Amino acid sequence: GAVVSQHPSWVICKSGTSVKIECRSLDFQATTMFWYRQFPKQSLMLMATSNEGSKATYEQGVEKDKFLINHASLTLSTLTVTSAHPEDSSFYICSARGTSPAYNEQFFGPGTRLTVL
Amino acid sequence: GENVEQHPSTLSVQEGDSAVIKCTYSDSASNYFPWYKQELGKRPQLIIDIRSNVGEKKDQRIAVTLNKTAKHFSLHITETQPEDSAVYFCAEAETGANSKLTFGKGITLSVRP
Predict the structure, then answer these.
(1) Which of A28, A50, B1, B54 has fewest C-beta within 10 Å?
(2) Is some CB atom of chain A closer than 8 A to the CB atom of B41?
(3) How many angstroms separate the first and last alpha carbons of chain B?
């Protein structure tokens, strides 16, 4: 149980285009989903916290107009990188947490490798 | 969580030896401490976690110890195997609806066959 999927697994796009990444919890309801960015040989940096039916909470320094997050249902959250540039190239990972916040555990998706040319 | 420091940044051990990785944290309200293993290009996988109401937890070759007074927790891997080679991240969080994980910088563990 507790499987999280991401789509696509990798994407290559031209500078200036927008890219949408989907994160799905396959066998549980995720009231909260998290979006992380990971540059090579670095740690996971939290970008934003997404709660179903409400606006995402962005971490300091993350542009909310550039990284659009939609959490439309208890099993789906999307991250759209708008007007992508080469510096946005990174490994984007989502995670999902179930309906019992006391347990804290987050289940991670397999990640999406974004390359902006 | 506020700040999590992880050290050393790299660790190389001989197969069969033990490996210990330590993390320190600053937020006294933190009460959940997971450890993740990440292989190159893959998702982080939870390998063990501990909550503040216990001092030690063990799962086969892996154990985690927590010292809340000193604000540090450690990952212990015994009888290391080459497949243990990966990047290991510690993290911490408070309990609650607004809880979020703060990750350490990670340590690259290499197990020499």
Answers:
(1) B54
(2) yes
(3) 37
Contact B91, B73 (CB under 8 A): no
CA dist A44 and B101 (Å) reads 10
Q: Amino acid identity, residue A37? A: R
d(CA A9, CA B109): 26
CB contact under 8 Å between A34 and B100, yes or no, is yes
Angstrom distance (rounded) from CA B66 to CA B68 = 6
Q: Is A111 left (phi over 0), alpha (psi -120 to 50) or beta?
A: left
pLDDT digits (tens, 9 = 90+) for A83-103: 999 999 999 999 998 766 556
Question: Nearest CA of chain B to the CA of A93: how many Å?
Answer: 7
pLDDT, tens digit, 9 for 90 and up, residues A17-73: 999 999 999 988 888 999 999 999 999 999 999 988 888 999 999 999 999 999 888
Residue that is written with structure tokens 């200036």 in the block: A16
